[in-house]
Amino acid sequence: MLLDAPRRPLRLADAPTPEPGPGQILIQVNACGVCRTDLHVADGDLPDPKLPLVPGHEIVGTVAALGTGVSRFRAGDRVGVPWLGWTDGTCRYCRSGRENLCDEARFTGYDIDGGYAELTVADERFCFPLPEGYPDLQAAPLLCAGLIGYRALRMTGDAERLGIYGFGAAAHIITQVALHEGRRVFAFTRADDEESQSFARELGAEWAGDSMGPGPEELDAAIIFAPAGQLVPAALKATAKGGVVVCAGIHMSDIPSFSYDLLWGERVVRSVANLTREDGERFLALAPQVPVRTQVEAFDLENADAALERLRTGHIRGSAVILPGRPEEGTSK
Ligand SMILES: [Zn+2]
Ligand SMILES: [Zn+2]
Q: How many other CB atoms are there within 10 angstroms of residue 324's CB atom?
């Protein structure tokens, strides 16, 4: 499925089999998660994507062929491909353990063709072996919603009372991890979004309610997954002194101005950008211990636009996942 230009529907196309270059692997895609970032790329919220582009950066697949010099994987291995697709390894960020901030980083399904396809290639150094016990469909959302959600959770330190704003794919995974770590979870959604609120309670949130109001008690930290800038002052208002508000999305509407009183008391507002390979290794080791269980809604490859539209309108419970196998192998939707 190709994005020819932002704000245009994806187009089903026949493309030649990609050739794995040195250090790259050719992957038969078994499943590819749909991330909110894919929506931001398709909607033109993020600048200068590769065009035409195969979106998708939560890829679960099987190694089909090896480029020269590949040493980590063999044909037939199951691999995961995340958002971080390449870094230069030489800039000041890469040299200080912050490759997520690399000036020259290239991202899967943005600068590099991704997983809304039957075949893709990836740099083996940025792929992950995946934990056994997760079928392909259930493993896909771990690769961005899980990894970047986990990085955001780490940024909250040891906060006990955790507010989660926006209850989509990342929230449904990170709630499980947070509870496993002994935290208490409060879910903030649109006031009338009873479906998301009941989903959050089912997953163990002790309260779910209106994101613009206060919770039942103060928060020690908040993570904002929804791309709505007005949530930043709302989350600050709900957070206790010394607490952090983590903005975990790649794109957000403008943050309205707010009184300094909301920040005063050593409150912190910060963003989380991308992931490091270390985040991935740590989270993929932790997920089966929790154990994180992902809830997914499956779509055939040619229905990728329908998956994006359901995500855009807030109708996905958990994660949407695309199954590029032939239709008779996949799940129709
Ligand atoms: Zn770098
Ligand atoms: Zn993502």
A: 25
- Report the first-to-last Cα separation within the chain, whole angstroms: 16
Which residues is 107 bridged to in the sheet?
A: 84
CA 2 to mean position of chain CA atoms: 20
Is 130 buried (19+), middle (13-18) or exposed (0-12) by CB count in 10 A?
buried
User: pLDDT tens digits for 257-282?
Assistant: 999 999 999 999 999 999 999 999 99
Quick: pLDDT tens for 286-317.
999 999 999 999 999 999 999 999 999 999 99
Q: What's the CA-to-centroid distance between 126 and ligand 2, angstroms?
A: 15
Residue 55 near residue 42, CB atoms below 8 Å:
yes
Peptide bond into 18 cis (omega under 30): no
The DSSP result for 40-79, as a single string, is HHHTT-SS---SSB-----EEEEEEEE-TT--S--TT-EE
Q: Ligand 2 centre from 251 Cα, in Å?
A: 11
How far is the C-alpha of 181 from the C-alpha of 185, rounded, in Å? Answer: 11
Type of residue numbered 189: T
Q: What's the predicted TM-score (pTM) here?
A: 0.95
